[in-house]
Design a protein that fits this description.
The complex is a heterodimer of chains A (488) and B (286).
Chain A: H1 9-14, E1 21-22, H2 25-28, E2 36-38, H3 41-48, H4 58-62, H5 69-77, H6 81-89, H7 95-101, H8 108-111, H9 114-117, H10 123-136, E3 152-156, H11 160-171, E4 175-179, H12 188-191, H13 200-212, E5 216-218, H14 229-234, E6 240-243, E7 249-250, E8 263-265, H15 266-274, E9 293-297, H16 301-312, E10 317-321, H17 333-341, E11 345-347, E12 350-357, E13 363-376, E14 382-386, E15 392-394, E16 398-401, E17 405-406, H18 410-414, E18 439-441, H19 444-447, H20 452-477
Chain B: E1 5-14, E2 17-23, H1 25-30, E3 36-40, E4 48-51, E5 54-56, E6 61-67, H2 71-78, E7 84-85, E8 87-92, E9 103-109, H3 112-125, E10 129-136, H4 145-150, E11 154-159, E12 166-167, H5 170-180, E13 186-190, H6 193-203, E14 209-213, E15 229-232, E16 235-238, H7 239-242, E17 245-247, H8 253-259, H9 264-285
Parallel strand pairs in B: 9-10, 9-13, 10-11, 11-12, 13-14
Antiparallel strand pairs in B: 1-2, 1-7, 2-6, 3-4, 3-8, 5-6, 14-17, 15-16
The chains are: A alpha/beta (488), B alpha/beta (286).
The structure holds flavin-adenine dinucleotide (2 copies) and FE2/S2 (inorganic) cluster.
Chain lengths: 488, 286
Amino acid sequence: MTGVNTLRPAERLKIPRQQAIERPPEERCRTFQEVSLGFDEERALVEASRCLECKDAACVKGCPVNVDIRGFIELLLARDHLGAINRIREANALPAVCGRVCPQETQCELMCVLGKKYTPIAIGKLERFAADYEIRHGLLLPPPRAQPGGEQVAIVGSGPSGLACAADLARLGYRVTIFEALHAPGGVLRYGIPEFRLPREVLDLEIQRIEALGVEIVTNVVVGKTATIDELFEEWRFAAVYLATGAGTPHFMGIPGENLVGVYSANEFLTRVNLMQAHRFPDFDTPIKVGRTVAVIGGGNTAVDAVRTARRLGAQQAYLIYRRSRDEMPARREEILHAEEEGVRFILLTTPIRILGGPDNRVCGIECQRIALGEPDMTGRRTPMPIPGSEFILPVQTVIEAIGARVNPIIQTTTPGLESDARGTVVTDETKRTSRPGVFAGGDLARGGATVILAMRDGRVAAASIDEYLRARRQAAHPVGAAAGNVG
Amino acid sequence: MESRFPILAKTMLAPTIARVIVGAPLVARKARAGNFIIVRVTEAGERIPLTIVDADPAGGTITLIVQAVGKTTKLLCALQQGDVLRDVVGPLGNPTPIVGCGIVACVGGGVGTAELYPIARALHQAGTIVHAIIGARTRELVILEREMAACSTSLAVTTDDGSYGRRGVVTDALGDLLAGTPEVGAVYAIGPLVMMKAVVDLVRPLGLATYVSLNAIMVDGTGMCGGCRVTVNGQMKFACVDGPEFDGTAVDFDELIVRNRSYADLERIGDQRLTCELASAGTETR
Ligand SMILES: Cc1cc2nc3c(=O)[nH]c(=O)nc-3n(C[C@H](O)[C@H](O)[C@H](O)COP(=O)(O)OP(=O)(O)OC[C@H]3O[C@@H](n4cnc5c(N)ncnc54)[C@H](O)[C@@H]3O)c2cc1C
Ligand SMILES: Cc1cc2nc3c(=O)[nH]c(=O)nc-3n(C[C@H](O)[C@H](O)[C@H](O)COP(=O)(O)OP(=O)(O)OC[C@H]3O[C@@H](n4cnc5c(N)ncnc54)[C@H](O)[C@@H]3O)c2cc1C
Ligand code: FES
């Protein structure tokens, strides 16, 4: 395979990092069409040719699921785009999603040696190119379906963690059922991340591909309510359960005025739009209201998604209020840049202290206070300290809080013997086992809020553990010929 | 998957109130008094909460009683046996704690009577003595009179216009009941927010426990959006997972009344659209 790239290393270094094609800000900031169009083939090939083909590729170690980045880039260069996407899929069941939403700048691209003196390879955009190529050319074929013969495994939650776990288990021959509380699968990919970053057709195709492996997705089931974990084992005859219910319960700041009309959690705001299609009201029935001026509180992906969504719903002025500096915003760099281009105004080093309402109990303003950053705390981030006397009021009609979320307690409170910590996060060991035999957990449920790819890694680790657990059980039940069906 | 939630029977209890029996075996198995479901009627539809009025675990069905007040409920009331609901999820919310002793008053207003009935019945079956009061605007909107009578020691009916039962509102009848039956130890009230607020105001000086069911605007019904937040005892609670039942004396009703009108103007648009759609559908079939 080596030798596809005929450029000498010095020549490769001279090529600038390729830029993705993007819809211009003035065109896109009123529509929900995808902002980034990714690379065309020409750009992808030029970008791939920048790769130095390191022997001990650091980028691969920077990827939480260790996608063979070097290998797939080489396949791209050889114009074996299908080979490239299949190489990615060996480690990552949702490449079209991850190419779009992973924080590459803190993972694979951070490790790229080119980044030390030059700019790193655009690994995310290349991943996306390979995935889109497959979709565009109709090559996304149903994968070979394993003959299901193994035990039944239940997965609770159809976010990236549950989907990744399901894909691996199905490939191993288990009969997998995913239970999802909402009416559509995908978790945050469905209800949180907006269409202009992750089009629904792309998400639907990725999920269909996992279903094609033989995975059954049952929507409208709230485990803990519709059926408890104990019932899944005893009545539904599942042999193991993977919990991947995420961290979906929104925090509120606890400042005065939060229950005024016009205050949303980012979860509610984004769910109304992404899941319920409120931006298409009245063709869709769910309403949403956005004032002329909107303030979003927070600095993560959720906040940036909310503020850009507010712009698209017609807000003339959209503020993002964050208590630290721009460099400390946890959101993906690319999205921060896109938000700026779309006219979002960042009010940094500032925290809201009160939401103001008019006589009609609707939001009419937000009072804020400036922040100074003190000494670094345990996480190395500087502690925000309010500056007395620096208060000011912004007139706004809508306030959206995006200050984080915690895990939903429904399962923990209905599952005796399932250990969780003070914040409700389910406790697991490194193999994703919980305190209950046969019950595994991962993703945001076991981490607090994290990322799509870490949730997927947990799902893969859990799939391997579940396989091991069920093999051991089989072994114990039939000490001689332990194989059940073709699982083995 | 598409036909998981068929409508097996439908009857009109009043011109704008339908009783609908839906096939939803998983929900039926687990439903308890006080639980609700979230329904989505069509693919483009809104998710709305409805109380599980009755459940038949063996037959795999649940009973809903729906008052047509806006687009989604009108759509639901217009469905017929054989139609299907797109999505049904539940049972959600905390079931009402049922203690089988003492004497209680159960007060239902409007379609709230449908939400109250499963609780009154469960209390009665557990051995509690139930005095029931149900109110409606006018005679034809009085629902479940027979059912409520069957599970209560006394039943008073009030109508705003006096067309049936006693003229007046439920608090008039409740005042009399509490005066005549001082042994009443708790009051369960479900109905419009203003009604529940009036009941709480009446009962508060007596120091009785008052349970109300809060009909906040919901989206997911699982604690994921916070849209259903209410203030109880000065604290933020999510009606869908912390309730829907709360100690009425601690509820900030005025705030909830305002919040429930958040989308009134848009709801009118949705409603008008449906009226047009139904009208044109009607002319087409003619
Ligand atoms: C707005 C937003 C933007 C984000 N942007 C990015 C980004 O750009 N890049 C990135 O890497 N990460 C991003 N994240 C974080 C990322 O989405 C999460 O870390 C990831 O989705 C976690 O995956 P999960 O599978 O653990 O849980 P989730 O994706 O939260 O999925 C959990 C699923 O379980 C379901 N569920 C919950 N309780 C039950 C129950 N009792 N029974 C049945 N089902 C249940 C839920 O409905 C949900 O569908 C973002 C998060 C948000 C909110
Ligand atoms: C726990 C609970 C149980 C309920 N049980 C019943 C019942 O058994 N029978 C019954 O007829 N009604 C019940 N309701 C009320 C019912 O949900 C609303 O009447 C319905 O949502 C109105 O929707 P619509 O589109 O028809 O009307 P719209 O015109 O959209 O709204 C009319 C009014 O209903 C309320 N409402 C609107 N959307 C929602 C929503 N998504 N969630 C909650 N309220 C909303 C608002 O206050 C609004 O002003 C219950 C509500 C709750 C919270
Ligand atoms: S309805 Fe979303 S949290 Fe209650």
